[in-house]
Design a protein that fits this description.
globular; binds magnesium ion; binds NADP nicotinamide-adenine-dinucleotide phosphate; alpha/beta; single chain
Length: about 400
Amino acid sequence: MEKIKMTTPLVEMDGDEMTRIIWKWIKDILILPYVDLNTEYYDLGLEHRNETNDRVTVDSAEATKKYGVAVKCATITPNAARMTEYDLKEMWKSPNGTIRAILDGTVFRTPIIVKGITPYIPTWTKPITIARHAYGDVYKNTELRVDEGAKAELVVTKKDGSEERALIHDFNGTDGIIQGLHNTDKSISSFARACFNFAVDTKQDLWFATKDTISKKYDHRFKDIFAEIYENEYKAKFEELGIEYFYTLIDDAVARVIRSNGGYIWACKNYDGDVMSDMVATAYGSLAMMTSVLVSPSGVYEYEAAHGTVQRHYYKYLKGEKTSTNSVATIFAWSGALRKRGELDKNDALMKYADNLEKATIQTIEDGIMTGDLEALSSIPNKTRVDTEEFLKAINERLAALM
Ligand code: NAP
Ligand code: MG
């Protein structure tokens, strides 16, 4: 078979620990035999980030802007222990944070569903994708403790020097607490566009919810911005595709999500997304089956697994022991990125390959061959627990048959 050609490079961001090992195996076993891989390679492994004073992370994000699609391996976010372990010059920031800031993106997390692994909410037969607005609100707050007898006010000093004031509370007879929050029209609009674009891209309904009945200015602004952008820029496209934009109150949304079958995107304000993404991920079973894509409002995509570098498995690997690390989310990061590259370049063969890679991966698990984390969850009879490499080879047997 002739290998599939790629006209435009894909930005490849290598990473750390066990996921770095898996990264190479996925390429060697599942991709390179079929695809004449054309990537612009950036080594985001912690050693190289340290050598380049983290310049490599910025460069990789800039390259993603230029080419439009990236695939990223999990990376270590340094803490005190890593400072010693890697003899770091500085406690470098989270690469994901740096990349997200440069691309101004929204993260969409989607579970991969396979037969035999039933979500804790069994009616969730289709994936629920969560989009979290990753700017502002309580995550960029200012808060104070207030003494009894004090009066707390919001004060806005305008461009012309004039002031607008609003009473928060008169603290009569008791001490208390106050908190100042903000968001910006710019950030909310970017978030809205990323969500509408992703809904169009994946042909799924988009749900959004706030508490606008209580928060008549703050949350209401989110509702209005979404509604305006939908009306002016996306309504026609949604109608053409037969998909829906659905707005409701957050408590109503939560009740409807539980009763739903999945199969939509749920856009969440920052705090709602923080809480609900952990709930949804847990309900679907395993973090190792959760994909993640960062989408910028200008239509740039960065694909990755939602889990980390699986450090404990890496230390076993270093001791020469076999691990049973689940590579599914990392495989889907590659297939997602290659499919998107194919879409942008009108490269049908590459898109077909990405579909086949996903099919072969799911088929392997549904045939009963799986890593230890899934074996513990799957209700399939006659399941076999395999090690990291055996799993990839079993996928390749199925992939070869499909190609
Ligand atoms: P983690 O790497 O996600 O692993 C936590 C535990 O979850 C593992 O020890 C393992 O449990 C299980 N697990 C996660 N992924 C798995 C997989 N693919 N296959 C099988 N089991 C899996 O999180 P962490 O240990 O908190 O973080 C490790 C490093 O990753 C940290 O340095 C952190 O900064 C980084 N991190 C990076 C990203 C990213 O780049 N996006 C995200 C999160 C964390 P058992 O050990 O019980 O088998
Ligand atoms: Mg959380």
